[in-house]
Fold:
Amino acid sequence: MNREKNVFEHVEKRDTIFRGNYLNLEMLKVKLPDERFANWEIVRVKDAVAILLVDKKRNVQLVRQYRPALGRVLLEVPTGLLDGKESAKSAAVRESEEETGYRPSVLQDLITYAHAVGYSTGMITLFLGTELEYTGKIHLDTTEFLEPVCMSFDELLQLVKTNQIIDAKTILCTLLSEELVSNIS
Amino acid sequence: MNREKNVFEHVEKRDTIFRGNYLNLEMLKVKLPDERFANWEIVRVKDAVAILLVDKKRNVQLVRQYRPALGRVLLEVPTGLLDGKESAKSAAVRESEEETGYRPSVLQDLITYAHAVGYSTGMITLFLGTELEYTGKIHLDTTEFLEPVCMSFDELLQLVKTNQIIDAKTILCTLLSEELVSNIS
Structure:
């Protein structure tokens, strides 16, 4: 789009300066609208999915896990990275079962969002998962240590509204599901 | 807390492997609950603030800007990094004025959240800003190119609900302000 080319910046050059297991670090050379250049550090990560699992009694299945970047244990919805050709929906179903032992048979799209627009390529797609079947097939990566947590949706909503939950995807799943969950009977 | 030490991981060692203008990359050596070790790549960024500015007619002041990491132009609420000792509230007021020319005299806390718990230290505090005064004192960094956008809160809410806005902080500001904005008269 011409308009964007003229009014805004565009990327002239892209160097990968670190390749990791989880993320790559790239240095971008950006051409500014006034013809000057600026360097921009960005992080390339895989896209992800996350899912709020709600059963017929309006109970939710969450996980507690330690997050090294923040140095604390967080309460979160099940989540995982999107690998290669797997669809977001099938990744969400797989992660549900692997992390909680519950498999949803109905998925509703909530939203797809960019989690850190200032420096990250990452997008996360959120779902509400219902009609849960307990298969017990929990399967964690060898470095993954999760603790399952079950509570009512109303308790979760209260934790979000009092800012006791700080994970963005869990907050968004909860706020975007409120109306849908109120229709579960 | 003992419980967390035993059940979950903890960080044994921390090396900074890249120092940038915007972010640092650190490699953590994490001790797992089963006594093994894992390496973990994390990104250290400054915390940030963002603010939804709503006037008495329920119009919102937003900005469009190019985001190099995503390679596209996004519609967002005003935002900025927290520098040193400045409080989140005063940073939010300052960024409002610098990016839009509007200065809010009333700020309401919406939430503080971690935007990328898998790999980032970053926290963002969101506000609703009302009682706007137009001072016109727009002041952008030399590499910042923003386009002001004004629309009704209802239009913004519609853009969020139809997933035409993908920026996490803007989505959260909108959803968390809906009830508060409905009380503006």
Notes: The CA atoms of residues 114 and 123 of chain A lie 4 Å apart. The longest strand of chain A covers residues 102-114. The mean pLDDT of chain A is 94. Chain A is about 25% helix and 45% strand.
